[in-house]
Amino acid sequence: MVAYPRFAVRSANSKENCMPDIRHRVVISAPLNDVYEAVATTEGISQWWTRDGVRGDSSEGSKVEFYFGSPEPAAIMEVTELNPEGHVSWNCVEGADEWVGTKLAFDLTAKDDETVVMFSHADWRDPSEFMAHCSARWAYFLFSMKSLLETGKGTPFPEDLKF
Fold first, then answer.
1. CATH number, domain at 37?
2. What is the pLDDT of residues 91-149, one digit of tens each?
3. Cα within 13 Å of Cα(152), Cβ side
């Protein structure tokens, strides 16, 4: 049995489906349900990713807008799956050119009194400097979520560390 079937490793020799992905693993000392609420609800997301605005209905098939200091949303995601047993996924339908068409997923697994978060931002067209920047930012914001759930205080935009 594979622990994370959605995170199968692609063969280095494979020419098929070789779009680059961002992947991170974070262990959070919190129950799976609390972590799920942090990634599945607009209220939860606003506490660790962006306080500037998370607008829309977080339900399957709907769209959620994310704001980062501008009157226009920086990204609009279509919610493709919400499973309280441990999976949230979005498709980026509007935003930075490099983001449009990418897929984001949070796979959650309870382990003892912790939750393992396997995050992916997949199907980038090309590895780029912007992708590397986004990977670093995702790592930062995943640790913001960890801090929120473990201490009660996250560091979402605009309170985030700028780098």
1. 3.30.530.20
2. 999 999 999 999 999 999 999 999 999 999 999 999 999 999 999 999 999 999 999 99
3. 0
**Beta strands of the chain (E only): which ranges?**
22-28, 54-56, 63-66, 75-83, 87-95, 103-111, 114-122
8 by Cβ neighbours in 10 Å (0-12 / 13-18 / 19+) ranks as exposed
Distances 49 to 3, 5, 13, 54, 158 between C-alpha atoms, Å: 27, 26, 36, 9, 9
Q: Report the C-alpha gap between 151 and 49 in whole angstroms.
A: 16
Residue 1 lies in a domain: no
- Which two tokens mark 88? 């949230």
- Longest Cα pair distance anywhere in the chain, in angstroms? 47
pTM: 0.88
List phi, psi (to 5°) of 12: -65, -25
Question: Within a 13 Å sphere around the CA of 21, how many CA atoms are in the beta-carbon half?
Answer: 18
Does 14 reside within a domain? no
Closest among 145, 146, 141, 163 to 75, alpha carbons compared? 141
Other residues' Cβ atoms within 10 Å of the Cβ of residue 119: 22
